[in-house]
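User: Please predict the structure of the protein below. I'd like the answer in structure-token form so I can feed it into my own downstream comparison script.

Assistant: Understood. Taking the following sequence of 71 residues as input:
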Amino acid sequence: MQNTQIQQSSINERLLTQAQVAQITGMSSAWLEMARFKGTGIPYVKIGRSVRYRQQDIEKFISDHYVGTGI
């Protein structure tokens, strides 16, 4: 049952282009391409020759790279 819910939420989610992700994150398209090549960037979906990003993956990537002030 939960697997079906995960699949359904993934299907309903809008996929973003590299240009949109660059604008959201403030990173360049070249950085996104290099990070994909190195395997260190935001997880992505490849459909044919098109690369798309899921909003939840972008949010998780940003959250994972958050550096707060130290205590």
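That's the full token string. The mean pLDDT is 87.
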